[in-house]
Structure formats: C-alpha cells, structure tokens
Amino acid sequence: MNSRARNEAIPIYLALALILLFFALPLFWLLSLSIRTPAEILIAEVRIVPHSPTLQNFVEVLGNQQFLGYLWNGVTLSVVGAACACVAAAPASYAFSRLKFPGKTQLLFAVLGFQMISPLVIMLPLYRYMHALGLTESHLGAALVYAAVAAPIATWTLKGSFDAIPEELEEAAMIDGCTRSQAFLRITLPIGLPGLASTFILTTMLGWSQFIVPFILLSQPDMLPISVGIFNFLGAYTGSATQLVAAASVLSLLPAVVIFLFFQKFVVGALTAGALKE
Amino acid sequence: MTSAVKQGPRHQRSGGGRRGWRFDLDRHPVWWLFPLALLLTAFYLYPVLEVVRTSFTDATLLNSAYSYTLASYRSVLADSALPQIWLATVIFVAGSVIGQTTLGLLIALTLEAGFRRRLPGVRTVQVVVLATWIIPGVASAIIWQLLLSEANFGFFNAMLGLFSLSPVPWLSDAKVAIWSATLANIWRGTALSMILLYAGLKTISPGLYEAAAVDGATALQAFRYITLPRLRPALLINAVIVSVFSLNTFELVMPLTGGGPGRSTEVLALAAYNAVFHDFNLAQGSVLAVLMLLLNLAFTAVYWLTSRGLR
Amino acid sequence: MKLKPGSRLFAILLSGLLQSPDVAHAGDLVAPDRIGRLDAPKSFSFRVLTVHSNNNAQPKFAARMAALYEKYAHTHPDWRVNIQLMSLQIPQEHARLLEQARSGTAPDCSAVDSFEVPLFIRAGVLQPIDQYFTKEEIDDLFPFIRPIVSDAEGHIYAWWWTTDLRLLYRNMALVPDPPRTWQETKQAAMAAKRAAGPGLEGFLFNGGRNETTTVDFLPQFWAQGGKLVDERGTPVFGQEPNKTYLLNAIAFYRDLIQSGASPARVASISNYDDLTAASISGSAAMMVNGDWAMSQMRAAMKPETFAKWAVSMLPGPTADQRSTASGGWTFASFSKDPVKVKACMDLVREVYMGPATEVLERLPTRQSEFNSLPMFRTDFYLQIKQYLKLGQARPGLPIYTEISNRLQIAISEALAGTRTPEAAVDEAVDQVAKAAARYQ
After folding, report:
1. Where does the secretion signal sit in this chain (chain C) (predicted)?
2. C chain contacts of residue B64, beta-carbon cutoff 8 Å
3. Contacts of B among chains (3+ CB pairs under 8 A)
4. Where does a domain end: A59, A77, A94?
5. Is the Cβ pair A112, B240 closer than 8 Å?
6. Domain extent for A211
7. A2 vs C45, more confident
8. CA C313 centroid distance within chain
9. Which of C128, C123, C124 is nearest to C150 (CA)?
10. Mutation to test the B interface, candidates A4, A10, A114, A120, most B Cβ within 10 Å
C-alpha cells in the first residue's frame, strides 16, 4: 500500500514542482527586490540574492504610518464589498438557476454586460454620479461600488454552484410544505456553502486589487486601500524606491492570504459529499 | 395519501396565481432578482449608460460642451490601425483564456489530488499561485520588466545564454512582443482560473470516481468521461470571466510595451486609455469601450454555443 | 543573548512597527496628512506628489521635508494644511484633478505636472498668482518656463518650482571626448564597441512607447530649429522645414541601430532606470539620461568606476545646434478664496521655491538659486545651469500629449522597421491634424 501511495504521489509532486517553477520564480525576484539596498536596486547583473541583503525596507514600510492603514482599508473595502455582492447575488443566482422565466438568458448576459464596460472609461462618469449622490470621499460609497462591480461575477459563479446542486433536495422539502425561499435558506445555501465561500473568496480577492474605484472616489490618504496606497511607495524616476514597493507588496500579501486560507476551509466542506450520497 | 391531501390545497392556492399573494415570492423571479437589480441600478447603471451615451457624442476632457454625432464611431471604425488593434486584442485574450484555463485546470487537478491524499506542501503551492494574483499590479509589472529585459543581464535571456541559446527580442520585436505580454498576463491571472475550476471540481461527487475505479477505468478515462463533462459549466464561466478581465486590463501591457513596438501590442484597453488620456477624447474612449463590450459579448456567445454544442 | 534567526526577524519587524519615524519628532505641528496645528482656525487642502512631501517613502527625505513644513507652520500659526497625496500616474491623476476641478471639489492647492498646466489654464480652473511673487523672482526663472505657465496676456497660473534636463552620459574610459554631433556620437559608439568587445552597447536611449522617448527625442528636433506647433497652437511639424527636421532626427536614430552603434533593443527601452542599470553594469558606453541619474550611479557604483563617468550636453546635428528637454513640477491653486490662494502660495514660496529643491536634491528653476543655494555651487550643477539656458520645454498646449503619443508611435515603428520613417511621420501628422480640429 505504501509504495502504491508513493507511486501516486510522484506525478503529483512532479506537477507541483513544475507549477512552482513557473509561478514562484518571478516571485523570488520580487523577494529579491525587497531585500536590496538602494545601491543594488537597479538590477545590473543576474543575481537573485544581492551582495548585501537587508531587511531595512520592511522596517521602513512598516514604520510608514499609513501603510497599516492602507492594508486595513483594503481589507474592509474588499470584504464588505464582497459580502454585499454575495448577499445581493445569491437570491438572483438562485432564481437564474431554478426558476424559469422569459428573458432569463438575456438578463444573465445583461448582468455580465455590466462587467464588460472598461472600468477606465467609467471612471469619470462614476465620479460625477457619486458626487451628485454625496457619496464621494466615503468608505460607504466606495464599498457599495465595490459591491456593484463584484455582483455580476458573483451572480455567474453562484449560479454555477447552485446548478450543481440537485433540485430533488429542494423539491422534497417543498413537497413537505416548505416555501421556496425556506428551501433556499435551509437547504440550498448550506449545501452550496463551498460554492458560496469560493465566490466570496473570488470577489474579495478581486476587490483587493480594485484600483479605479477607490482612486476616483477617495482622496484622503487615511481612507485609501493598499491598491492605491502602494503607489505612494514608488519613487519618481528621479529617485526610485522600487525596493520599498517590493517590500510593501510582499507585506501586503499577508492579509489577503489570511482571508483566503480562512474561507478556503469552507470550500472544502464535507457537506457536499454527505448530502449528495442520496 | 397524506401528500396528496397536502398537495391539494396548496395546489389550489398556487394554481390561482392572483390569489396566492404569499407565494409570489416563490414563483416570481422579481423578488429574487430585486437586491441585485437594486445594487446594479443604483451604483453601476448610470456610469455605464453614460459611457454608451458619450460614445454617440464628440465629448472631450477639454471642455464641457459637446454635441451628438456619429463622427466618433466613424473615426474609430475608419482608423487604419483598427485591424492591428483587433489582432493584438484577440491574440492577447484568446492566448490568456487558453493559457489560464489549461494551467488553472492542471493546478486545480493537482491540488485536488494532493489534498485528497493529504500530501504535505500542497497548500503552500496553492498560496504561491494565489500570491501571483494578489500582489499589486505595479509589482507584477516590475517583475516582468526584469524578466523580459533584453539587456544582457535580463533574466530570461541570461537563462537562455546559460544553455547557449541566442537571446530573444521579447519586447522589441513587433511579432514577439504580444506573446510576451500574453505570457505575463497568463502568469498573473491563472490563480483566478485555479479558484474557479477548483470550486468546480469540488462539486463532483467522489462516489462517481469510486464507482469508475471499481469498473476498472483509468485515471485518464475518469477525467474524460466524469470530470470534463461535469466541469463544463465551470469551464464556461471561467472562459467568460478570463476574457472579460483580459479585455479590460492594460496594467501589464502598458508598463511592458506601452502598446509598442509600433502598435503591435496596443490592445483595445490601451487604445481606450490613450484616447482618453493622451487625446483627451472622451467620446473616442467611449466608442472603444463599447467595442470592447461587443467583443466581450461575442466571445461569451462563442463560449456559450461551444458549450451547448459539446453537450 | 543569541536569538534564533526567526526571533531576530520578528524583533526587527516589530521594531519597524513600533518605530516612530522622524516625522513625529516635528511635534504636533506636522503629521503625514497635516501641516500646522489641528485646531488652527483656517485651513486649506494641498495635494502634493508623495515624493515631494513628508510622505516620501525614503525616511531621510521625509524627515527633511517635515522640517521645512515645520518652519512654515511656525511662521503661519493660523493655518492648517490638509495634505493629500498624488501618485506618479500622471494622466489618471490629472484627469481626476480636472474632473474634480469642474465639480468644484478640487483641492485648494495642487501639484500639476509642467506639461499638463496648459490644459488646466485652458479649462479656466486655475487662479492667477502673479501678485504673490516679485517681478525679480519671475524674471529669474529659466526662459523656457514663462510661456508654459502663462496665458495669452502674460498672467501666471502655476509656479514651476523644480525642473530637470537630459544629458549625454559617457564612460570616459571608452569615450574620452564628449561627442558634439550625431556623426561623432555614432563614431564614438562604434569605437567603444571595437575597443571593449562583444557585449558592449555603444549608445542607449529611450526608444519605446512612453513619454520618456519623446522627451529624449525632441532635443534633436529642436536643435535644428524645428517647431511642433506655431504661435497659434496649430501643429506644424508636418510642414516643411519641420518635417525634414523630424525625418533627419529619426534618420539619426535609425542610423545608430543599423550601424550597430545602438542595439535594436532601444525599441523596448522606455524608462530611465533601465538605462541607468546598463551603465551600472558596465554594458553601456554612452546614454541619454536625466540629471538625477548621476546620484543613482554614485550610490550604486564603486568610486573608481563612478569617477570614469562624465556628462555633457546632448549632441546635435552640428556642434552649434544643441538643445535639451526640461520637464518638472508646478503648484497651482484652484480655490476661489483669495486668502487661501495666498496661504497656498506662501507655502510654495517658503518651502518649495528653493529650500525643497536642495533638500530633495532636485534642480531649482531660478537661475540665481544656482549661485545662492550651497548644494548647487558645484561644477556639475554649474554645468547644468548653462545647459538649462539652452533647455526647451514641451509646448504649452493640450494637444501636446496627442502629438507626443503619435510621435512615440512613429519613432517606435521606424525603429522596429514596421514602417518607413516617411510613412510613420505622415500617419502621425494625419492623426494629429484630426485631433487638432477638435481642439479649436
């Protein structure tokens, strides 16, 4: 048994090694940049490990009074935005998945169509609109736009996961007297938790790198998320500070990875296997 | 017997339609769609309509005056560079979709297999792939500028030199540059496909594989007859989402090539950027945004029909 | 006490977290988002480039700027300045600024990139600031500055406080004498390559699609007397003799590549750091770069290697036809309240007009400052001062950015060989003409 398990593990580790080679190698360069002194930041030779590595860049980034604020703002905006998007998208995805009504496919495409307009060109009309609503310079306004931007993708991915849940379970519950909404809340959602968690992770990560919306809606430095704040670590070409951007980028991974790992647990939920055993 | 009795009154009530007020929630999609519709209408609809409306004007950033005209459409569609822009965009998007989907699927399968056997180190690989997607765009641009640099200390060319291969003009050759940009985009975006396809894999009941194993199916056969068909919806969604993002993105292309050499890597998103910010031509930028929308819808329709056809 | 490596790492990171940066030593008066006391009766909002503020990512510059801000706070105790930060994504930042100006929500006082100023003047959102500066101060500015920041009647709308210029850098061990003409440059590059062997790139410059390329290229056009636009702002670079000058300059670039003096990869170089890196690695004999590269190189090279590098004026078609391009940053005021405009301009005068340039090690814009400010009295800077007198700025018109975009495309196509120079220039002329029709 043991050698069989080992034989099965070998191709997996081979694949993992190839994956790491392609994805991790460029990241090693990022790490390399983050431990360089200004004297070595302009890469002039092929050395991943610099002559005099230093942790000073991390110290400076953490010592920047606004850096932690950028991270915190990034977390709040992306998590709140993702949560609102999922809350709005869940019933809609359910309807797209279970109910039949005229124009369903067209509506689905229309929802996705929102996502298809270039955020760059939306930037200026969005500002004018939010300014008229009085929602600029506020996290509330920004979070709502985050939610609106994430909602189309949330709808499509949630619909996909609801599609994969057999309808028999809800129908059985409805025969027993449940309304559809009760079936949705008590049966579909719990079973669909892995899909919901995946969607939530996806939209949170997308919100993490959302740049245009916070850039156009927020000017106060203490409100900016890391996606915008990172630019404050760039020097000018008249004095590059690439090493600081690199260090800030490495540090900014932490909150996002923590969120991912926390919610990934729900993706691998054991509920799926149990319910579908019928 | 009991169920028939229970079904009777309920059947009567919901069959009436007008009468069963409380059950409207169940049958009418309106209430299910309401929160989403509210969110999108309140915070997304106006800007989107504005963009479409602006494409039918001659608005610029220079002053507030404008008038309605089709001139912006005519000038974009008549631009002799448009075919080149289309080509660059299609290569970039199609390449990204194929690359990200293939790699994403490979990673998702490997992760799934690794997690199932509780092999150590699998989670780390997953996090590393995720990291490529969540580092700020500016960081990924810096990295890929380093890798693709054609100086003799540029990383890829130096590696090629180690194997006595001649250096490649990654970014200065008009025919190669778009592929370099696509490669960088694939690296950057695969994590998205990994997440989507992994979630898709998790919806496939393990019982099916066990049954197949009992029947003597090989891993490849299991993949082809069990996994792939059930992954089709997830693959469809993945293709659509990757297309949308690849079409909209210029955050890698701009620092790497700026659209050059010449216009060989000027994808639609970059053309829109140049129109708005260098030419201050809001209307033209909006036209290009509408073109991107149409291209997006076209890609989506192709995926949809392909998915249907394969069924 | 020997700590395990992990604990040591943790301790360093923790100390970074708890470390109070020098900024805080400035007391209550200066914070990352504020100059002056929190409870000061009057206030104005001030948007500044991060690198030009006490938020500069490098602590030494941040501390110096904080000290300057503190002095201002002492002299103006009634005011609180609310700091907003601007990044170097110049097109997006200025589009946002313009949109906010039109909505009436622009900051009272903001940094504006020098070549974007004309756009804002034309949009009518800036306040004239003549009365806040003396005639001597205004006349002292380098000649290329006044036309950009003034309107037709000569009123000034932005104070251009720092500038830069492009220079020819050369490794004297490979190129002993400064080349003055195109021909000399090519020959020097070829000679350097023969002497140093394979792997040496003779002459590097920005040739990719980026504003840096236009800025490096235009001096070659200007040196011949070329004009991009006429006095009324109509693009004339497509008409003779300007068109010939353009083609001459492009021919110079192409000749460099075809002869091997420059590598083909210049078509993919679009930022100055790449050029600086090449000089640091020793793989380049000459390059076009900005004045700032000198200190980057000094920091990265061994002293004896650095001593071999010298700067000179950019070459031209003949030894007497020379030019360079200068950019830089300004401050302008959007506020309709004259009291705030004055407070803003006081800040500009007391902090940025002079002291900040020394502290940030950037070039000042008034000729007398090269004599009065200690840092700029060295040979290097006095050389720069002479060159700045020959400097030109990019045209003070909104259409410039489109011209630049089209020129970048043309140069890129010509260098990559995807189009003949004539065809590339014709296309650029056509497109700009279409754009110009909309700018009337």
Report:
1. 1-26
2. 102
3. A, C
4. A59
5. yes
6. 64-276
7. C45
8. 17
9. C128
10. A120
